[in-house]
Amino acid sequence: MSIIIFVIVLVVLILVHEIGHFLAAKKSGIRVDEFGIGFPPKIFSKKIGETRYSLNWIPFGGFVKIFGEDPNEESIRGPDSKRSFVNKKRPVQALVIAMGVIFNILLAVVLFSWGFMAGMPVSDIDPLVVNKGYEITNAKLTVINVLPATPADKAGLKAGDEILSVATRSDNVEILDSENVSQFISSHKGEDIAFVYERAGEVKLAEIVPEENVVPDEPERGAIGTLLGTVGTLKLPIHRALIEGTILTGEMTVLIAVALGGFLLSAFTLSADFSQIAGPVGIVGLVSDAAALGLIALLNFTAIISIHLAIINLFPFPALDGGRLVVILIEAIKRSPIKPKIVNAVNTIGFILLILLMLVVTYSDIVKLF
Question: How many CA atoms lie within 13 A of 337 on its CB side?
Answer without folding.
Answer: 20
